[in-house]
Amino acid sequence: MVRAMTLGHALGIASLLAGCAATEPDASHDTAGSTTAATSSGAGTSTADSGSSSSAADPSDGSTTTTTTGGASSSSSTTTTGEPSLPEGFDPFACATTPPDVLRERLCDEAADPEHAPDEIFIHCRNEGGCLAPAYPEPGESLRVMAWNIERGMELDAQIAAFVDGTLPTPDVLLLGEVDRGCARSGDRNVAWELASALGMDFVYGVEFIELPRPGDAITATCEHGNAILSRHRIGNVELLRHSVNESWYATDEPRLGGRMALMADLAIGDRMVRVAALHFESGVEDGRKREAQAAELADAMLAQANPAIVGGDTNAGLYAIDLALGTHDEATTEAFFTRGFSDAHLAVPQASRVTHPPLLVLDLVLLHGPSAGAATVCPGAVCDALSDHRAVWVDVTLP
Prior knowledge:
By secondary structure, this protein is an alpha+beta fold. It is 16% helix and 28% strand. It is built from seven helices and 17 strands. Helix 2 (156-164) runs parallel beside helix 3 (191-199).
């Protein structure tokens, strides 16, 4: 969901794109080659205990970055059929096999008394997960990765049906944004749990916002909204990065506690790990500097370890469509990744097929550092526009 653009901003993008001739994408958007980026071997891994939270001061503005690792304390560990041997340093997420009562079991401490929350942005929440994969696949050299802003899961039944009937491919990894948990507008459902259960995938979920009741809206009671990672492979080393540079939504027409975050995790694939992240950056037209800071912070966090990195989600990078069309590098959000060696997995897809937020914007990306991109697809509007206000993107990646 994107905050309304100014008319001038929208018309400017429309005019620029309309005047662009169809050209090949600028290969320099991929700073490591056409579709392959070199693996970083950065040092430093989180030392937080499973299920704990820690805050680190941001020296630039005095705000804090909250990182939460592990699962909810009420979850129980489980082993599924086909349990793989786990790589060294892999801490499996302590997930459940039966769904919680989302209307009674909230993940965030502040949900019980929002008016007395100590901070509007840096809230205290547990991550949730389910071990729902009936068996884990044999490790291979490739993964199909999909990123999708599912618009709260308000069309969840149709989204599930599209996977089940083959209209959408079932990926190995599904990076989701705008995922409701116990919200009236999406039927009080646990969207991540239901989707993972239908697809036979494990999942983890982290809270971006505590949604607060608002007059004339479908939010009639406090609920939760966030990002999720679904995987056919075992999930571990889970961290929630709440960005140090953030926007308060508390006193807006969409009142919320919390702030933009990325959910990061390792996937156990044979004797190695792949780091993945589901992102959702700030959406205001005037929030470009915040988006750039969030992108840089996430990219640095993903590179602070030696494993291949895959990032996906709704960047809200409104100018990236123009960069693709003109071969420019003016969208600072995406440049924060490219200058750090990440590549756009869909760079070879023709410009006319890149739109993910109709009518013009290319917001939803899969970004790679280490893996190489193979066949890449943006969901056609005829399929996805009835399912969400964003189109899913997916790509087959080869691991290094």
